[in-house]
Amino acid sequence: MDGLIGDYCFDCHDGDVDKGGLNLEALLGMPFHEQTETWEKVVRKLDGRQMPPIGEDRPSEKLFNQMSSELSEALDQIAGEHPDPGRTETFRRLTRTEYQNAIRDLLSVQIDARAWLPKDESSHGFDNITVGSLSPTLLNRYITAAQRISRLAVGASEVKPGGETYRVPADVTQENHVEGLPLGTRGGLLISHTFSHDAEYEIKVRLARDRNEEIEGLNGTYELDFLLDDQRIRRFTVKPPEIAKDYESVDRNLVVRIPVTAGLHQVGVTFVDHSDALLERKRQPYTVAFNMHRHPRLSPAIYQVNINGPFNIEGAGESESRRKIFITRPDQPSQEDACAEKILSNLMRHAYRRPVDAEDLVQPMAFYRREQAGGGFEAGIEAALGAILISPEFLFRVEEDPADVGPDAVYRISDIQLASRLSFFLWSSIPDEELLELAMRGELSKANHLEEQTRRMLADPRARSLVTNFADQWLYLRNLDGLTPDARLFPDFDENLRQAFRKETGLFFEHVLTENRSALELLKCDYTYLNERLARHYGIKGIHGDHFRKVNLAPELHRGGLLRQGSILSVTSYATRTSPVIRGNWILSNLLGVPPPPPPPDVPALDENTVDSSLSMRERLAQHRANVACASCHNILDPVGFSLENFDAVGRWREMEKGRPVDASGGFPDGREFVGVGALEEALLDRPELFVGTLAEKMLTFALGRGIESFDAPAIRQIIREAKEDDFRMHSVILAVVNSQPFQKRKTLP
């Protein structure tokens, strides 16, 4: 090893040159086990083939592998002798997503936490890392949320009528059927709404208007259906203003007041499709015009739906949440306190994710007794539930060190802590009864129980949070919400397409996950998920209807893995053009785990106003790279991103750019060259351990709620080895993460 380093590394990293702050001459003179952090950085550079740089004398592929392998084996041996699983934070607040899911699983109450709680800031690519604090302002938001949730769940309070407003984004096309609504309808909105009581509720619709407050697309008479749980409750006839006398009167009477039982119901509002509207849509092409960045409506559309109430309350009803809360009921007043203790103990056990004792009951029972005295048994339970929901034991995940473990020591976390780690990793939510019971008996970490529980939980629908929470963040899908391509250059982009982008990638990742396919299928495959809107955008014929389905693809359609999907291609572009720089950085950082160094502070931006607009993106970036300060990063980033240049800024395939054939030739920092997305995929698959190692790093970051450090590298390599034995199948990667030392152990402070 020393000879190889001397042959290829000393020219840049001896005591005189010392490039990058690395003095190998001095490093080799130090005890190896004291410099593992530096040597792990060397291994990462070797694995990424980033050093020696292109143009210098470089080892053969065989020697690269030999150097990396020998260093890794030595580092793994030291890690085995001196384990360091790292340290998660002792207190970590639930993220907004985790809070919403926890409420769902604890109380069977569906809420939209985005409307009640602020967005969590991200670090290391995920939002469950910088959540250690609880400011007074945020605490007030949690108190308000707890009050609303406890009222929805229990329904004991005599509430004043209120309302919820559900709005359709302005650029959603409503000319076609909406998935989940009855066939033969078009447009509209399907709402999951929790009704707090058995009572009357008012459902009111307002139609979409243009900037002049005139209802859009109202060029005839239309029928509008109100639905509750798939059953039509009222049909309205919507007439044009010359018949209805004025625009306000058109939708003033689009309101119903109906009795609804407490609990979760589906409310739908949609237009009846008819042949005239269908012919009108076929006759006129779909475009986005400069009408407040929306397409001109060809027929009327829903702007918002208001659900108001409750009115004339008959009672709390028997909702799913009440059945979950009231596991026992008193037959006489003398039994109320005992029943309350049993109910609250059960709720706290699941909310706090641990056994509860008499001391835990003191505060909730105080809230219970205060309200029970004046409002009765259920009012007391509602008040106590509100107190549980603002307890730090619920809002925070707590991992305290055992009292009998000394400083700077490694210990295995308790089964109770392991259960929470597992459930928040796989479900972004609290443990269920089976997992919690196993942990409380101290059996979760024994024998095959952990693997059995992991596989059981992956088969549960709640594991879809790995799609909606983990993959959404890893793949930047959350950035789609802020995606606004220039309407002049991309006139057919709208909210429907944005949603289709997200759904394609979500269904694709979910398929690979739930079917336990190889993780490498994320990089290359011959299928995707399409509906008519997305297929039309991609230029794929024969796909009809709004529902998504798995579609097998011919090579000439240029679709398949992640790098060919509109979601990824759009979030790595600018509003007006592609960005080989952003795309290259995304691939190096998210797929290969070898991000480029941060740019120096004196790097100028690519000036769109001074560069000749007739030049291709490759030519414009070539001018940018002429600046020495820019070249160091762009020489790494640009070639990778250029291989995706056949896809425009909204993911459409193109052969020409500015009247000339697209040049999609690219390469990696290791000197490999290729042309186009297919060759890029093959280059990624040539060394699958890099991609799977990056996936493992991202999963471990998400699972632990902390950034990956150099001492985690041996665990990552072990995850890769274990997953490789099963063809890198997704469940094998996840099981290896769960079985890893960082996931199951923790280190005390020095």
Please sum up the structure shown.
With 750 residues, this protein is α+β, with helices and mostly antiparallel strands. 43% of the residues lie in helices and 14% in strands.
Q: Would you kindly provide a written description of the structure presented here, covering whatever features stand out?
A:
It is a single chain. The protein is of the alpha+beta class and 750 residues long. Among the domains are: 2-81, no CATH class; 162-315, Jelly Rolls (Sandwich), CATH 2.60.120.260; 475-571, no CATH class; 579-685, no CATH class; 688-747. Helices cover 43% and strands 14% of the residues. It has 30 helices and 18 strands. The strands form seven sheets. The chain has a four-stranded antiparallel beta sheet with strand order 2-9-4-7, with no helix packed on it. A four-stranded antiparallel beta sheet has the order 3-8-5-6, with no helix packed on it. Strands 1-10 form a two-stranded antiparallel sheet. Strand 5 (222-228) and strand 6 form a beta hairpin. Helix 7 packs antiparallel against helix 14 (377-389) and helix 24 runs antiparallel to helix 25. The model is unreliable at 277-293 (pLDDT under 50).
